[in-house]
# Entry
Amino acid sequence: MDNKKSQQDLEVSARRDFFKKTAALGVTALAGTSLAASQDDHAIMHHPEWGQKWGDPVTKNRYGIPSAYEHNNTRRNTKLLASGNFRASIAVTPIHESEGIITPNGLFFSRSHGGTAHINPKEYRLMIHGLVEKPIVLTLDQLKRYPSVTRTHFIECPANGGQEWRGPQFNSLQFAKGFMASAEWTGVYIKTILEDLGLKPTAQWMLAEGSDNSEMGRSVPIDKILDDAMIVWGQNGEALRPEQGYPARLLLPGWEGNLCVKWLKRIEFAHEPWYAKEETSKYTALKPSGKAIQHFYANEVNSTVVSPSPEKPWTDLKDGDTVEIEGLAWSGMGTITGVDLSFDGGSNYIEAQIKGIVLPKSWTRWSYIYKYKKGETLLLTSRAMDDAGYIQPTIDEEVSIMGVESVYHRNAVETWEVTADGKVNHVQLRTPGGVKNV
Amino acid sequence: MFKLNTKLIVTASVVTASALFTAGCMDDGATPVITSQVASATSVASIDGGVMYPVVNGKTSAYKVNTQSQGMKINNGRVPTANELAAWDTDVMHGGIGLPEGSGSVEEGEEIYEAQCVMCHGDFGSGGGGYPALSKGNAAQLQKTLTNNRWKDPEADGPTRVFGSYWPVASTMWWYIRDGMPHTKSKTLSNDEVYALAAYMLNINEIEIDGEELDDEYVLNREKFLKIKMPNRDGFEPNIDGVNGLENVRAYYKNPKNFGAKKVKVSERCMTECQKKSAIVTRIKNGGISDFLPPMSVSRDLPQKESYDQGFNTLKSYQDNCMPCHGAEGMGAPVTGDKDGWVEVLAKGLDTVYKNGIDGINGMPAKGGASTSDAEFKLLVDYMIEESK
# Structure
């Protein structure tokens, strides 16, 4: 950054000098615009190897891979979030390196309950039965023959940020907020399939079951099925990755990633819910009353500052530099309508600006252009709102209702501390011991 | 141009269910039609407390919709056979639907547990290797810990959420053991074996049936299983059971206070002094968690040779695949470094040891779950033998 900046400055001054001096002294003065040879940038002054030798033939990497220099832009794990041999486990998305509102398929966070299953598409079958007039079995080709829709949605694990109910633990954006990713999904609305199957009036719940070794299953209320529930096979223009449930998964836009059952094998309609393992033993949010919320569906409105972040500090900024504070906002309950930014940890806010395409239940980019003062300390806090009327609570507000043991669905505002030397630390603004009845 | 049509065309055109749908989503009288400040979205309340975007004038939110398929019956696929339905429709519901006949004793359950489960779930279900604990003691007593909150002292006792103390119904356990366990070769247990393991689960969690403790000789069957009353059966909200289940869910998420959310009019949101005066900067304690794999870096240098996944890294593969069970006692596997233990194992002959490892033995999955070639796997065995001399 420093280097790039000084290069731009030099260019500008050189050009200014050129016009001044050519006007006054003529072409011979050109030599006077040159800077000392010691300031020459080696990257400009020599022919790089890639500019003189043959590059790769087009036959190499027929399915392209990122530049080798980008190898640190990768999913990561931690032992804390792994059962045993990294099978019932999670690998999280490097959102500090993410651009726009789409996550590349290879970086999409990966979570499973029995490892990534590898399904032979020729042996893939989807059975839909229960309280329908006509049960069916579909092959993959038959499934893909339905009229398709393509939608951009994030998928978020409801435990995103769930390790930090009692205080910050990860000095990392990737681990603090990277249990999510966003993609353009292609598939069929389940309601389209049901036109033919005929849902019986007594059908109130749907079971979605995976064909992986854990047979991951969840009960889904009929409301969602008749709204925007999809069975998807396409992800960012190609087939789903195995980690995302190849060849087909359930997509319930905005709802817990766990509900979006991968390697989808069976759909059954019934009048009662199922009490599947992942809707009681886990994915339930325990409150101080001792009661736990079950069937906690939508990921609530949320946001984070992406740049700067612990991984992307401001240590290279000079006094007076203009810098874009950039972030993501998302809501599983609707569409982002605005994001506020605070420089004092969420006491006082100003409005940031939304950038780019704004879609329901999708990542939304926002930013604020800022003039950096060297040596200042900041507490950067973002706060998003959605069109369902929700706003992110303070930590005190959320904890006063949910306590600190609920693991799931934490969406209170989060804070990055920018230190005097431009480093960024994850901190939280909260009342020690919690506040009751805010 | 987008023209707002006041008559909402609800996309759910499945006739038989549309009445239910309409009642559930619009029963608050004044259906909120919110025009977002950034998107011309028309939305209505949904079951989750959020909004949904019905198709209006061929559009849902920003997306155009091909409306031709609405109401169209597309006849894909075929009707499954009775056998196919029976083969896949094997879920077990609360109340007994899907729960087959069978029986097994606590004692038989313990034998199966020791052979196939202990290596991950530890002695008496105490947990280990990152896998969940199945019991922490008396279920009814531990259920009382669910009100514990570590507000101030992170070292204080938190709530204990294991099968006995937390799960609302027992059918979940039976179903998951049968279809998801053992983790490395699921769907290999007979119904009788599942009943035996279920009996053992109840035993170690000290859950009684009809006032009777499950001692070693206790034989569990379908009839007795359906009488199980879990200590935390009333511990969850909203109530999803019965004909009012969905209505309860819809009502629950209408009140943000129920689930820790916050609603406010945009114009009335707090812009100054929004934090409590008592809120202070709280920092990561004790260095936090940073054992990231691979280590965190945003450098754009070429990767170091050894970090390429080319070539086989025996130590790393051992750590990822073998150590969870062979790295510590109590998991039932011969421990790396246990000289006597490995002498006993090697008495079978090295080829047999290789073969058992490659095929899997007792609770050990094929190759311990490692995605290696046979030759690479043998390097892992060699490593453990070498470390145990």
Q: What stands out?
A: The first strand of chain A starts at residue 77 and ends at 78.
